[in-house]
Structures are given as structure tokens and as C-alpha cells.
Amino acid sequence: MIRHKCLALAAVAALYTMAPVHADSLIIGNIDPSGAALSARPKRGMSMETVESKWGEPEAKRGSVGDPPIARWEYANFVVYFEYSNVIHAVKKP
Q1: What is the DSSP code (8-state) at residue 50?
Q2: What is the mean pLDDT of residues 34-41?
């Protein structure tokens, strides 16, 4: 009987000492949740010819650097990085 009272008292004490749990939300502006902004850039694996035919002549073409050779084409809204002649990444300009 005393053991049951001690367990009950311990359980009540534990409930009162537990801190409430809170969560915060992080809101980031200027993010397109639909993902439409991603489709407006070249996809990985596209050839230079495909990129140029779809988006036109870039504002600037930076020559290949390094090994493997990485080239960079700059458009008004994004920059495209090529390894050899295929897209490896397209980054939206801020």
C-alpha cells in the first residue's frame, strides 16, 4: 500500500516538473513553393546545344577551367555550369 502511494506521488511529481514543449516556425520569403522556378533553368545532363537552343545565347560565356573542365554560362536570371559539354548545375541569381 505504501509502495503504491509512493509510485503515485512520484508520477504526479514527474508530471508537474515536465516543461511544456514549444515549436517555432521559420518563414522564408521569396520562395516559390510550387517549384516553378526550378523548371525555368536547365536540367542536369542537358547539352550545351540544348541549353542554347532553349534559352538562347548567354550574356557571357566563361571558358573551361580545371580538370575535368568546368565552363560557366551566365544568363539574366541564372548561371549554368557545364562539365565538358553537359550541365552539372544551374543556379538562380539573387
Answers
A1: H
A2: 61
Please give the backbone phi and psi of residue 59, each rounded to the nearest 5 degrees, phi first.
Answer: -65, -35
Q: What is the tens place of the pLDDT at every residue in 39-83?
A: 589 999 999 999 999 999 999 999 999 999 999 999 999 999 999
Domain boundaries, the chain: 41-94
